[in-house]
């Protein structure tokens, strides 16, 4: 079976992926294909047929097979699209940023052989995947929308649109696109994607049920490992680090060295006070890769333990990793904005994040980051609408709850601050090695609610509402959105 699948792929299958989930999808074949021997490339194609993620070795084998094929058939536009999208996936899934220019070159060769306007859907999907890997979500949406006009019933087109809408923060379109996708394809990858979206929106019970379905239906090791990582993430969200670590352990048994599982397990181990093991996993997750998000988590763990010298070295790795990713064309403004807000220059954070917002990046993460940067820059009144927007889209995210609570505390809205900071700690008391202790200190400083029952408390809220600040003119955020 693997030989036959590779046979089909060798003449013009496309890896049409959405990189957030690491999915490759098989596309139509051309006549008279060769019959290479089965091996890692065949397994990559088998995974592609199911829309499942492939391992680094499988992607490397598929890339090598396509490059060999194209040396003698340079006008095969579909194979150029396969090659380009595989390079883009390898970059996004394994932080191989040097693969991004190669992806772009291959996709442009595909378009030269068959322009997009003449029906090169495969190259359009590859370009959308490449733009998503670079966190250029507006371009990702434009390419996916072009592909949709050509192939409206291909489920991977809707998958590409979903990833773009999530990056932009168009959550109404996320919902409608997910419905269309699941109507076209109900396999395990569709369920895994739905579970991730439910998790983002705070629908934890739905997310858990759907994630278990995806795990049960998963077949290949990489696909099953991805489902186990998702189940671990959901346990982490519930504040259950031991259960989360167990899921990550199982994923790593299937795919040793899985970078996402290593970093996630490090988070859980730190919450269990197994810090030596946590640092081991953070270092393994970054070995041979420039992943600034992992370096930032590691640095904050060092700082929380008072290991200032090690923290400083790790913060330097954050900037070096971000620069390396940016050299491959990856937009690092959100990551750098978060870094500057907490560990650098808050004014610089506001500048970076405001520019991102004005470019159209209105995701819940972007709203939370900008609100927090504004608070850190001493502009709490302007920060509140962004914090409200983030929590409207994801009301159970403990980081968003904590950030909003601190903004409200700065504005003298002590009842709302107590409610939101308390919620962060109830949802996950381990949500951040640096910020969770600060959240507990803030709750102690806020003290108990006023006595006198609901009437007195309601009066306090009304007074806070009159003195509150909806942040007029705050770059398009709906006033009062998600005020809770």
From TrEMBL:
Chain positions covered by the region annotation Disordered: 464-484
Gly residues bias: start-end ranges: 468-484
Gene3D superfamilies the UniProt entry points to: Tetratricopeptide repeat domain
Entries under Pfam families matching the protein: TPR_16
SMART domains from the UniProt entry: TPR
Coiled coil: none
Cited InterPro entries: TPR-like_helical_dom_sf, TPR_rpt
Entry-linked PANTHER family: CELL DIVISION CYCLE 16,23,27, CELL DIVISION CYCLE PROTEIN 27 HOMOLOG
Name of this protein: Tetratricopeptide repeat protein
Taxonomic path: Bacteria, Bacillati, Actinomycetota, Actinomycetes, Kitasatosporales
């Amino acid at each position: 079976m693997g030989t036959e699948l590779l046979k089909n792929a060798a003449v013009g299958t496309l890896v049409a992926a959405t990189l957030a989930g690491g999915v490759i999808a098989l596309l139509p074949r051309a006549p008279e294909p060769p019959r290479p021997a089965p091996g890692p490339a065949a397994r990559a194609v088998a995974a592609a047929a199911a829309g499942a993620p492939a391992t680094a070795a499988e992607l490397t084998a598929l890339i090598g097979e396509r490059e060999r094929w194209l040396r003698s058939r340079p006008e095969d536009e579909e194979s150029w699209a396969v090659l380009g999208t595989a390079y883009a996936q390898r970059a996004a899934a394994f932080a191989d940023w040097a693969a991004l220019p190669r992806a772009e070159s291959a996709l442009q060769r595909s378009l030269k052989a068959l322009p997009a306007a003449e029906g090169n859907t495969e190259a359009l999907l590859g370009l959308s995947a490449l733009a998503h890997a670079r966190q250029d979500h507006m371009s990702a949406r434009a390419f996916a929308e072009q592909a949709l006009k050509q192939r409206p019933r291909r489920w991977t087109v809707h998958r590409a649109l979903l990833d773009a809408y999530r990056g932009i923060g168009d959550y109404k379109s996320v919902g409608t696109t997910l419905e269309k996708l699941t109507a076209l394809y109900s396999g395990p990858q569709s369920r895994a994607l739905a579970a991730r979206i439910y998790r983002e929106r705070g629908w934890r019970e739905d997310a858990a049920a759907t994630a278990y379905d995806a795990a049960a239906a998963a077949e290949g090791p990489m696909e099953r490992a991805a489902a186990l990582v998702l189940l671990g993430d959901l346990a982490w969200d519930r504040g259950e680090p031991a259960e989360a670590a167990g899921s990550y352990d199982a994923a790593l048994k299937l795919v040793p060295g899985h970078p996402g599982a290593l970093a996630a397990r490090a988070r859980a181990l730190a919450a269990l006070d197994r810090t030596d093991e946590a640092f081991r996993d953070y270092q393994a997750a970054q070995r041979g890769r420039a992943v600034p998000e992992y370096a930032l988590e590691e640095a904050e763990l060092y700082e929380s333990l008072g290991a200032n010298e090690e923290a400083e070295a790790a913060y330097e790795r954050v900037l070096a990793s971000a620069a390396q990713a940016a050299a491959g064309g990856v937009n690092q403004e959100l990551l750098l904005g978060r870094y500057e807000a907490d560990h650098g220059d808050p004014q610089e954070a506001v500048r970076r994040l405001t520019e991102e917002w004005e470019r159209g990046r209105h995701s819940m993460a972007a709203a939370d980051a900008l609100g927090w940067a504004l608070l850190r820059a001493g502009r709490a009144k302007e920060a509140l609408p962004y914090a409200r927007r983030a929590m409207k889209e994801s009301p159970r995210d403990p980081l968003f709850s904590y950030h909003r609570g601190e903004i409200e505390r700065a504005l003298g809205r002590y009842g709302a601050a107590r409610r939101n900071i308390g919620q962060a700690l109830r949802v996950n008391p381990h949500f951040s090695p640096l910020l969770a202790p600060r959240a507990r200190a803030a709750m102690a400083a806020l003290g108990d609610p006023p006595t006198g029952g609901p009437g007195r408390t309601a009066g306090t809220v009304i007074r806070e509402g009159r003195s509150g600040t909806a942040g007029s003119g705050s770059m398009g955020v709906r006033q009062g959105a998600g005020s809770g």
